[in-house]
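As described in the Methods, two query proteins were run sequentially through the folding procedure within a single session, without resetting any intermediate state between them. The first query and its resulting structure tokens are shown here.
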Amino acid sequence: MTSSTDINRDAFLDAIAFTRCRLNNDTDGLTAVAMACEPVEMVEALASLYIANIMELVAHDPRRVDLFLKCLQSEVSAPRDESGR
């Protein structure tokens, strides 16, 4: 994975556009961004943005970031009931 300074500007703009489309449930926009982007670069940009947001949530403490990710992983990995929840 490249460092955030190595990720190009277009990848960040694609990541922001993709996130905005997801937020607005814009499936046509999601498809358009996905078809036009460099996928690996956009995923790296999304991960960088995600990490930056987590750092804001946990007051820039890397130990708390790791704890947050472990909690999130636990929630996602938890068994689901019959309704899929």
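Immediately afterward, the second query was submitted; its sequence and tokens are:
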Amino acid sequence: MALAALAACGVRPSAPDLAERLAEDPPGAVAADLAALGFVAVAPRPGSGPFPANAPCIEKARGNAMFGIGVVRFCAGPGGAFVYGLQTHSGEPWQTYWPQRGPAGDLR
């Protein structure tokens, strides 16, 4: 039961899936599809994770207090596209999934 609940709280598409898609499709097409899937515009605010300069971001979050919240953030601008993911229940900081996988620093 617990594993099913954890799987159910994930955002679709996941950050790794979104990074794979960016390897094949232009950021503009990806952003349009994500908006249709419920991703919404977000603005930088203290403690809210990575936001690249001059790259508007959209994100989607899903989950609950018991099993954690998953967040996928997609940003695109003149400097390229970026994909970030956060799983609150993992205890890990924000992760970058595109253009290079690894810990995400504070990019503001």
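Confidence is low (pLDDT under 50) at residues 1-8. We note this only descriptively and draw no conclusion about the first query from it.
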